[in-house]
Amino acid sequence: MGEATAGRESFTGERMPSKHPFVEAALAAGAISVAAAAMITRMLDKVALRADPQLLTQTEEALTAAAAELSLGGLSVAVKYAEAKLDTDGVRPREDELRAGRSLSIVEEKSGAVVLRGHFAPVEGAAIVGAINALVTAELRRARDAFGSSAACTCPDGTPAEACDCADPALGEQRTLAQLRADALADIALHVIGCEETTIDATTTVVVRMDVEDLADPDSVGAATIDGIAQPISAATARCLAASAGIIPLVLGGDSVPLDLGRS
């Protein structure tokens, strides 16, 4: 971290600015944390040899300003997207690497419990996460509606659900979020193998965001993002998704104002 933001000297002893002056200034002023500074400089150094120098400087300035407002989690998403835009090789090689590393291990413990551990590329991961979250959300809504929020409730307005005489505590959701996710995955598996007693009535939407120019240009090496997944995907993969799914294209202006909404 010190080397990335410290001043430098030329071979003639002339004083030179640091490699990352915007990060250095923000760090010295206490505007960003050391962790945020390290996250930004590590990415910039990684792509420095392949990125346009002017764009690299602009990106450093923008990320440094964002780091003062964002949490480390939010900054991580911004840094990954910036890396995808800076890297002239495009996102596809990194995407192929992630897909090649996919795996799912299944281990049965001595107790009889089955342990699953998986690694998935962003697109497949988004589908899995979206499907599980849709079922979890449906269960939470069912429990909320059953626990004292029905139209038949005769308790005074403002009565907490847990104190409502009309609510049956047995109908309240008792499972943890981790248990709900496990049950959702099991329901999906039971549904696939044709269990007649299990029905899946929840649906989910995977939202992919990309520039309209990258969507239209088949030769673009641009990037796209999937809501809920930090790692960007390539424009080529996004176009494949658009060709194989039910798509509702939404065109936004510079201020995220909807300009056009339609169905492909």
Write up this protein.
The protein has ten helices and nine strands. By secondary structure, the protein is α+β, with helices and mostly antiparallel strands. The strands form four sheets. Strands 5-6-7 form a three-stranded antiparallel beta sheet, sandwiched between helices. It has a two-stranded antiparallel ribbon with strand order 1-2. Strands 3-4 form a two-stranded antiparallel ribbon. β6 (223-226) and β7 form a beta hairpin. The protein starts with a helix and ends with a strand. The mean pLDDT is 78. InterPro entries: DUF222 (IPR003870). This is DUF222 domain-containing protein.
Low-pLDDT residue spans? none
Q: What does the main sheet amount to?
A: 3 strands, antiparallel
Give the helix level as a range of percent: 40-55%
Summarize the helix and strand pattern as letters: HEEHHHHHEEHHEHEEHEE
InterPro entries: DUF222
Pfam families: DUF222
Keywords: Membrane, Transmembrane, Transmembrane helix
Protein name: DUF222 domain-containing protein
